[in-house]
Amino acid sequence: MIRSPQTKNEWIAYFQLRYAILRAPWGQAKGSEQTADEAQHQHFAYFDTENLLLGVGRLDLLDPQTTQVRFMAVAEHQQGKGIGRALMEEMESISKEKGIQKIILHAREVALPFYQQLGYQLDAPSHLLFGEIQHFLMHKLI
Ligand SMILES: CC(C)(COP(=O)(O)OP(=O)(O)OC[C@H]1O[C@@H](n2cnc3c(N)ncnc32)[C@H](O)[C@@H]1OP(=O)(O)O)[C@@H](O)C(=O)NCCC(=O)NCCS
């Protein structure tokens, strides 16, 4: 099931997964996985049947027509099983309900085929994270 974390422990697990997948492998400090404005955004967590948190994603409203997907991460041994797709489809569905017409994101190079498979189009190279992870701006009209 996909829903926002609710309890204190679920929020800890949510940010811990983000940190483990998107920050720790590059030696980044704890805390670097969060932004100052987390409370302003919408959070999506994938829970399995035992209520284990296996995947996360954040949806930011950029303007009345546009959302941005950020901090997409699936637990290491759970990747390739459809969890990322399920999270993206849920964020798309919520975006559609709000009348959003376009979703954008900055994809890591390794994740390009994942987003392309889900119908996102590559626009241009964007920023270099930690001096080494090239990102690419992508979009999908929904
Ligand atoms: C990228 C990531 C979020 C994808 O989630 P996932 O659960 O592993 O992906 P899914 O199993 O839902 O894959 C969805 C589709 O994309 C395809 N896909 C995923 N990764 C792929 C790859 N590297 N190459 C080709 N296709 C890929 C799958 O085959 C699948 O296609 P299908 O549904 O038609 O069978 C996840 O692997 C991850 O957390 N990676 C490490 C962190 C990261 O790079 N995050 C993205 C930051 S921008």
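^ coenzyme A complex. The longest strand covers residues 53-63. Residues 21-22, 72-74, 79-85, 107-108, 110-111, 113-114, 117 surround coenzyme A (CB under 6 Å).
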